[in-house]
């Protein structure tokens, strides 16, 4: 045997390295890395730690007079406003009305954006026909379209739903287009060699491979929908969280204003939880983070 023969590693941990030739380089014997997850009793407190600190500072500041009630109502006042709206039934009605508008608008915008993004990502002709128009749409702030949409569709539900839909089309298109374009070409060629073509190739290989980008786009679209919802409900509505904001501004009720912010935050948490559940069941092979 020559001097470049790889030395046998001993069972001891200190001699677990492998020598190569006489260069002095030593390779550690690979160890299986198990996926570790935090227990729920530790994860939950960590997730609510920062929000709890913010609420505690807010509560202490209001109780000590450091934060004026005219500027920012304290947690007890906000809780009283919540109870008042719940007892009158307006809390549930307004929240469901806003949720319905957001869901319908997001469903419409996400569907259109996903179809256009996939077509532009798959085919050169699709990119040539679609991409320039979508880039123009992306460059136009959707809030600038509010007066135009009111002139076209009035101030009924159609205006509100379409405004949210237009706000969510561009993010879904951009991430879907990018996700499809980033699919490994070798994977597609391997699937084609097994006879997958047409819709079977698109829905069996390309869409699943682009799913991380698509779900990220869905999360962004749901967040943007809340902004669109705020703008849409400021005009011509008699129910919804945005209508409650208008009433709070008119009567200078800071407790109702803060309550509306809390309701929008809860709505955002619900949307985020929905996407997390969707990611867990549609992509079980993905880890939450790279390093734990």
From TrEMBL:
Q: Could you tell me which residues belong to the region Disordered?
A: 1-31
Compositionally biased tracts (Low complexity): 1-14
The UniProt keyword set, sorted, is:
Cell membrane, Membrane, Transmembrane, Transmembrane helix, Transport
For membrane topology, the record states:
Multi-pass membrane protein
- Residue intervals of the ABC transmembrane type-1 domain: 95-275
One Gene Ontology cellular component term attached to this UniProt record is: plasma membrane
Where this protein primarily resides, as one coarse class? membrane
SUPFAM superfamilies, A to Z: MetI-like
Keyword Lipoprotein listed? The answer is: no
Q: Which Pfam families match?
A: BPD_transp_1 (PF00528)
Highest taxon above the source species: Bacteria
Q: Which InterPro entries match?
A: MetI-like, MetI-like_sf
**Segments crossing the lipid bilayer:** 40-60, 102-124, 136-155, 161-180, 201-230, 256-278
Q: Which GO terms describe its biological process?
A: alkanesulfonate transmembrane transport
Q: Where is the signal peptide?
A: none
Cell compartments where the protein resides: Cell membrane
Protein family membership? Belongs to the binding-protein-dependent transport system permease family.
Q: What is this protein called?
A: ABC transporter permease
